[in-house]
Amino acid sequence: MTTTHTTTPHSIVVISGGVSQPSSSRLLADRLAQKTLDLLRAHDVDAQVTTIELRTLVDEIGKATITGFVGDELRPAVDSLAAADAVITATPVYKAGVSGLFKAFVDLLDNDVLIAKPVAVTATAGSARHALVPDEQMRPLFAYMRALVIPTALFAAPEDWGDTALGARIERAATELAALMESGVARAITDGTWKRYQHTFGSSAQPAGAATEVSGVDFDSDLMRLATGGSARP
């Protein structure tokens, strides 16, 4: 395992779709995040966790869904995902599917925001009948967004919280997530292939130092700046 030491802590971003307080979805994500932090710090890798609580952004998510524009109050959440080294996703299950709030937020993300990022998928429900939701719905969703979804998906029904097997699965998932973060695979992939992906114009996913020229068009020219509502350079 290769450890990359940097002055900037690695960033783990949790997307929590839980709407109750406290939330079982948030609890499952927090347990995975903490275990991942413990494993990283055991290898002298500094890391920090940022949590996006979707229930506090419900109005902004609704407005963005209708208008097609991400507002100022929602922008920091999207930008934090673009800058993340790993993402933990957590949703309650309603009617055999991920929550509408969770899906609405993901629908607002540019298609290139999660390219090559390690992603963990987790879900909670009131019945074990929904246990396949992380693998059957969340895994394909983030595969479509070209993320690197870890092998172990997590699901917890009420009877699972007191079972040691849940703790074992959390540890396994954390090990996978930490290993991908330490390997630097996301940076290696994007550094070598970023120009070959299809990108959304104006996406916050543009990595530092990446070219702003696509298909021969310089989007950073004075003309393009004016055309997109900006101003020409002095």
Automatic annotation (TrEMBL):
Originating organism: Streptomyces eurythermus
Top-level lineage group: Bacteria
Keywords of this entry: Flavoprotein, FMN, Oxidoreductase
InterPro entries: CE1759_FMN_reduct, Flavoprotein-like_sf, FMN_Rdtase-like_dom, NAD(P)H-dep_FMN_reductase
Name assigned to this protein: CE1759 family FMN reductase
Enzyme class: oxidoreductase
Listed Pfam families: FMN_red (PF03358)
GO molecular function terms listed in the Swiss-Prot or TrEMBL record: oxidoreductase activity
Domain NADPH-dependent FMN reductase-like: 12-161
EC number annotated for this UniProt entry: 1.-.-.-
